[in-house]
Amino acid sequence: MSSSAPQETGRQRLWSVDEHLADVLAAIRPLEPIELQLLDAQGCVLVEDVTVPVALPPFDNSSMDGYAVRVADVQGASEEFPAVLKVIGDVAAGSGELPTVGPGQTARIMTGAPLPPGAEAVVPVEWTDGGTGGGAASGMTPASSAPEGAAGEVRVHRAAEARAHVRARGSDVQAGDLALAAGTVLGPPQIALLAAIGRGTVRVRPRPRVVVMSTGSELVQPGEPLTAGTIYDSNSFALAAAARDAGAIAYRVGAVSDDADTLRATIEDQLIRADLLVTTGGVSVGAYDVVKEALTSVGGSGGSGGSGEEDVQGGGVDFRKLAMQPGKPQGFGSIGPDHTPLLALPGNPVSSYVSFELFVRPAIRALMGLPDVNRPSVRAELKADKALGSPAGRRQFLRGKYDAGSGTVSPVGGSGSHLIAALAHADSLMVVPEDVTSVEPGAELEVILLG
């Protein structure tokens, strides 16, 4: 959706969703690359192309437990007329010196073991008598318990073509191939590939450290008893979990009381471990909205939206109203000596979470150096019993349940910004544009996918 023009509400400018997001992203710079051990680099973004130094696999090896043979020696073999071969030794995975397989000879070979010189194929043990002189074998006797199994004779009941059950050198990747391109997010398969080609460390942008804190004297930590007028702090848990889901390392700070000095001290203490600070609550127009009060004396510089009489300011943080529902009050800027970005979100649970998805998650992804910072979105048909209302001039984000099979989306719960239970059952956000006040069943909507 395109940015809408700023609206005026008295002395204060009303920002569009797109303007606020653009202001946030304009002030975010990707974190500086560092060299990390492989497991520490999980979830990070690669900043360099990685090429393959050695072929994978580095040698011809067996894909089966069985016997390494020459093709001519087993040609025409059958159960009635088996090929009888002399077993000259064992070849296990990791074997160094290998026996040479000559005419009429074979070597027991294990999965992953290098193909010995002279051998051209591998016959699975099930195609043989396993050296027992009986019928078809179902497996091999361990060498430790039956060393004689590595000598004597074996009867092969089936022929094998050249290279049968042999994994060729370089059949996975060749030396000089591009293993991983810069910009790749390192998950378990990518970590495995890096280890397989011998990389112990890799150069990446680190996962951002995000500090999340709730404000409000009414907040009690889960597990503690509620008293009159108190509620459990769910926002800090939701936002810390969302930050982890976005790829960050999240630090959750217990709820801070409605005291500006306490909040200011807490924020300053957290700067040492934060690449991004996120607060929730205290950004509206009430007498106890202490985030504004506390940030008036925390140094830094605001976002690229700049200062001016249009914005209620708090030192390095601009507090603004957005043309959206939920999540109208927002704050953004940078604080501290390192100009650490700070996003101040509203305190209502749904407002807080929607604001995170729209503004904080893209900021985290930008810090990681990812080109695509937004959640994927699709167009879907509204499936509902009645039309959905939306306030004029506001972009509304309603919780929904998306059905990819039918291409439909259904509303979950109402539009109230306190309805956490409905949020827990939603997997998407339905977007109603600013100029639409009613959406009829069957109409097409943009849907932001959350999962």
Q: Which descriptors apply to this entry?
A:
alpha/beta; 31 strands; 451 residues; elongated; five-stranded mixed β-sheet; single chain; disordered N terminus; 8 helices
Can you summarize this structure?
The chain has about 450 residues and is α/β, with parallel strands linked by helices. It is about 15% helix and about 30% strand. Helix 1 runs parallel beside helix 7 and helix 4 (about 235-245) runs parallel beside helix 7 (about 350-365).
Shape: elongated
Question: Mean pLDDT, as a whole number?
Answer: 87
Low-confidence stretches: 1-5, 299-315
Distance from N terminus to C terminus (CA atoms, Å) equals 21 Å
Could you estimate the helical fraction of the residues in percent?
Answer: 10-25%
Q: Provide the β-strand percentage band.
A: 25-35%
Structural class: alpha/beta
Please report the total strand number as a whole number: 31
Q: Give a quick account of the main beta sheet: strands, pairing sense, barrel closure.
A: 9 strands, mixed
Number of helices: 8
Gyration radius over CA:
32 Å
Describe the protein in words:
By secondary structure, this protein is an alpha/beta fold. It is 17% helix and 30% strand. The chain has 8 helices and 31 strands. The strands form 8 sheets. Strands 1, 2, 15, 18, 19, 20, 21, 23 and 24 form a 9-stranded mixed β-sheet that branches. The chain has a 5-stranded mixed β-sheet with strand order 10-7-9-8-11. Strand 1 and strand 2 (12-15) form a beta hairpin. It is elongated and about 95 Å long. The model is unreliable at 1-5 and 299-315 (pLDDT under 50).
